[in-house]
Amino acid sequence: MNDQTSPLHDAPQHVKLAVDLIMLLEQNEVPPEEVLQALEIVKQDFLNKAQSQLEQKT
């Protein structure tokens, strides 16, 4: 048995999520341009959610 841990084992959660998303998109052979367009939509959605959460705290 290998006692070494994966380099991602101690990585921050956002890095693990990014790696998972990259693997998912690559396994499904999503064209890079479509990925970039989709990521812009996702980014805007989460920026809006973050702003809403910030406003609710104040």
Write down how many β-strands occur, each being a DSSP E stretch of 2 or more residues.
0
**Largest sheet data:** none
Radius of gyration: 16 Å
* Poorly predicted runs: none
Quaternary structure of the protein: single chain
Broad shape: flat
Please write the string of helix (H) and strand (E) elements.
Answer: HH
- β-strand percent reads under 5%
Distance between the termini: 52 Å
Q: Structural class, from helix and strand content?
A: mainly alpha
Question: Residue-averaged pLDDT, rounded?
Answer: 92
**Helical percentage:** over 70%
- Compute the number of helices: 2
Describe the structure.
The chain has a domain at 31-58. The chain contains two helices and no strands. It has helices spanning 13-27, 32-57. The longest helix has 26 residues, at 32-57. The radius of gyration is 16 Å and the shape is flat.
Task: Report a brief summary of the structure.
The chain has 58 residues and is mainly alpha-helical. Helices cover 71% and strands 0% of the residues. It starts with 12 loop residues before the first helix and ends with a helix.
Topology:
Blueprint: H1 13-27, H2 32-57
List keywords for this structure.
single chain; 58 residues; mainly alpha; 71% helix; 0% strand
